[in-house]
Amino acid sequence: MTGTSTGAVRAPAELWQLAVDTLESNWEHDHTVPSRTLYPHQWSWDSAFIAIGWSHVRPERAWRELASLFRAQWADGRVPHIVFNAALPVGSYFPGPEFWHSAVADAAPTAATSGLIQPPVHALAAWLAYRRAPSEQGRSELRRLYPRLLAQQRYLATHRDVAGSGLAAVVHPWESGVDNSPAWDAPMAAVPADVAVMSAYRRHDTAHADAAHRPTDLDYARYVAIVASYREQRYRDDGLADRHPWLVECPLLNAAAGAAEHALARIATVVGADPGPHRERAARITEALLRRLYDPVTGTFQPRDLRTDRLIPARTALGLMPLMLPDLPARPAATVIEEACSARFGVARRMDRPLPSHDRTAPDFEPLRYWRGPSWLNLAWLLRRGLRDHGRPDLAAGLRQSMIDLVARSGCHEYFHPDTGVGLGSPAFGWTAALLLDVLADDDPER
Ligand code: 9WN
């Protein structure tokens, strides 16, 4: 890795303090904003990653973070991907609460939220937060969260099993967490939308970040059209297969759901519940991921477009994510590790460049544009867990060092140039700070 955005290389103690200061400055009464400028509300999977960071420094905040998010859980079990802070002025984020209009849905809570979900990494976060600081408070927080985490899993397994395949479908690229990944190009191209509709809205992101790094206006026209279709049905999930314009089975979201069952099995033993059903559900999810999304030819996982019933050929970092499943069998685990170590992703004991979000040898690799190439700490963190669980602590250590190097050189940026390590997007980003604390502490006794 060569250039940096600040030129500074920070020592571990300084780095730790930078990460703590970033979390402190993003703390907002009962949750942590991903970024004060770009994302001033509460986001679902951000809160889970951020809770893991807080557990190292202020465990009570880890519990408050998760509790505030789950207070906005819908009656059907969905955990909304954005919980809006009512104290912020209109226009603080696009699309804001008036666009989502969550009150149209019978299942929505009183708080204004979006109607979408994000990868369910919360049970894992709750388990790690507890393991980090096992206390009576931690046990009672787990007891409170457990039924809510169960409802979140039940929502995915019932409402969202659109194809009856045993996997959950995502209904919008925002649900995948990797919004403009090249994996979504083909299903997005099939969504009818006119870029001119964007003249009716004011994008907030491009006022705070370089437009050349963000999704395009045409992407946004389609994002808006997909939400409008879901909102018209009052965010109901029945009949999705017949009418919804965008439906995909994503390896990351489903691997997170499987990892959640493994975490819930552990939580169950603490709260006095039966871990058996969680282990069974975890095994079923792993089996379904292999049956539906594993491509034996490429040896990696690929999303399935439910509109065409075909695997999407783009080889993005999504394909590596099922390695986070501890029960992934040895053969697919080995081929995924091979993919991670290939020139596409460059994982190694000593990495010269950070993990990219997309195949760096692909013609559509874009090193500056959001999820189309840049390096993100959450993907590296998830992959690192998988490498450790599947017997490659050497590669996990290489990935860990590359994560630390990125922040040491560039700060707690949202994402990083995958060749130079230059910091991009928001300069004070919540999950970068939180996951950095986790890898610096390197304390993960139960994995
Ligand atoms: C839309 C908050 C979120 C992350 C997502 C990331 C980005 C939002 C946006 O920011 O998405 O949800 O406005 O681009 O893609 O993963 O949760 O940090």
Description:
With 447 residues, the protein is mainly alpha-helical. The protein is 46% helix and 5% strand. It is built from 17 helices and twelve strands. It has helices spanning 12-26, 44-57, 59-71, 97-100, 122-132, 136-157, 173-176, 185-189, 205-208, 217-232, 240-243, 251-271, 276-293, 330-341, 377-389, 393-410, 430-441, and strands at 27-28, 31-32, 42-43, 82-83, 169-170, 248-249, 294-295, 300-301, 304-305, 310-311, 415-416, 423-424. A hairpin with a 2-residue loop joins strand 1 and strand 2 (31-32). Helix 1 (12-26) packs antiparallel against helix 17 (430-441). The two termini are 29 Å apart.
Distance between the termini: 29 Å
Shape: globular
Q: What ligands can be seen in this structure?
A: (2R)-2-(alpha-D-glucopyranosyloxy)-3-hydroxypropanoic acid
Task: Please list the strands of the largest sheet in the order they lie side by side.
Answer: 5-6-9-10
The helix content, as a percent range, equals 40-55%
- Structural class by sheet pairing and helices: mainly alpha
Strand content: 5-15%
Order of helices and strands: HEEEHHEHHHEHHHHHEHHEEEEHHHEEH
Detail the poorly predicted runs.
Answer: 1-5, 443-447
The radius of gyration is 20 Å
**Number of distinct beta strands:** 12
Number of H- or I-type helical stretches: 17
Q: Largest beta sheet, briefly?
A: 4 strands, antiparallel
Average pLDDT, rounded to a whole number, is 96
Output the keywords:
single chain; 447 residues; mainly alpha; two-stranded antiparallel ribbon; 17 helices; 12 strands; globular; binds (2R)-2-(alpha-D-glucopyranosyloxy)-3-hydroxypropanoic acid
